[in-house]
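Design request, tokens follow.
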């Protein structure tokens, strides 16, 4: 695996974890938002990870020549943000709330603050791990370049 592949994979990992951290922060910030510009309570954001093939011309040539197999192709990560269903909310009895319905119930977002806090901690740790991989590969490249100086 080339150093550039390592850089690509760790960069994709950091980007995905940043999106996960942003989604968790938005969910926590809006845990009690009962009215949005679209109407209704805030919709929880979830981040979905998918594998993403790392395309490299030299690797594709090696596969075409039979030097590498298809299962040795490195994969990174692609992330996307999905909104929770409109019907996912928590009913809470607050008859004096301005957004209460005729029965006195308010629709609150289906956000579990403990789960979002754990997601934030996990995303931060995963981001740090990807940054460590990136910095280790960078240091390896620097040391490799200095081998010819001796």
């Amino acid at each position: 695996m080339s150093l550039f592949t390592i850089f690509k994979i760790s960069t994709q990992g950091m980007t995905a974890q940043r999106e996960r951290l942003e989604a968790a922060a938005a969910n926590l910030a809006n845990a009690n938002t009962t009215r949005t510009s679209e109407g209704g309570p805030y919709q929880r954001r979830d981040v979905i990870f998918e594998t993403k093939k790392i395309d490299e011309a030299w690797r594709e040539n090696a596969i075409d020549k039979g030097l590498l197999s298809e299962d040795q192709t490195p994969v990174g990560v692609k992330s996307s943000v999905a909104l929770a269903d409109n019907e996912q909310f928590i009913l809470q009895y607050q008859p004096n709330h301005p957004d209460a319905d005729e029965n006195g119930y308010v629709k609150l977002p289906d956000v579990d603050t403990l789960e979002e806090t754990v997601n934030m901690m996990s995303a931060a740790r995963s981001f740090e791990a990807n940054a460590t991989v990136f910095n280790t590969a960078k240091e390896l490249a620097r040391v490799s370049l200095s081998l010819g100086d001796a």
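Comment from the thread starter after seeing the answer: thanks! The longest strand covers residues 45-53.
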